[in-house]
Amino acid sequence: MKTLAGNDAGRAGAAGDLLQPEMLVLVTGGAASGKSAFAEGLAVRMHALSAGKEAGESEKAAAGAVVPAGADSVREDPAAAKGGRTAAAEEGFSVVEAGSSLHGEGRQSKLPAGGSSCPGNLWYAATMHYDPSDAETMARVEKHRAQRAGKGFETIEIEREISGLADVAGQGDTILLEDLSNLLANELFPWEGEPVPAEEIYARIVQPILALHARGIGCVVVGNRISEDLHAEYDAGTRIFCESFQMLQRELGAAADAVVEVVCGIPVWHR
To answer: Is this structure's pTM higher than 0.85?
Structure first.
């Protein structure tokens, strides 16, 4: 097991020996562990790497390289930095190395119906049930928005059926999905609509994530620390939730390119 903390984590990613733009990364940790900020940092870093890859392809095309017929055009970054590095790449490197809280929602959007994005978008898939009348929920939402402000995320509110992300994201995009526990609760115990049977949770959550990854979309998925011991006093609903959540993290952990546990703000790379 390799442990990377602080600047070492940022340097390892910058050296390219750990992080690539189209990875599937599971980030887990307890409450107030710093996992959200770390996951945001990874997503920004992956997006910067993807943007750098696109910039390199664009330069080759401008120099006379052959572009296959029907290939997607490369989106130009409107805020390019000096030396050919985009502003996003510059910021992505610095904030990860500093271990700071990273991202921001450039704008908020509901899940578009049947649309597709240009290559290189940075998406924040928010799974928390949004209830403006709930002061505690709104305080959490505003805290996360402030934490990410101005960093280039486009927010998708998607409480259930994350297969819909395939209609939005395309190859070269990066998605930060936060988080698995909210998503699972919304599927098993929905505010509206019919609950999903526990035996269908794999198909509803794991398969869509793997499908995104297979299409060349970078995915950072935020997990959680849910009780690993199922106590006798748990009611049936709680037991189903815990068992399903453990299954989700096992399956995603097995499929992921990297699994990171954040402990007291320190990322511990298990793979």
So the answer is: no
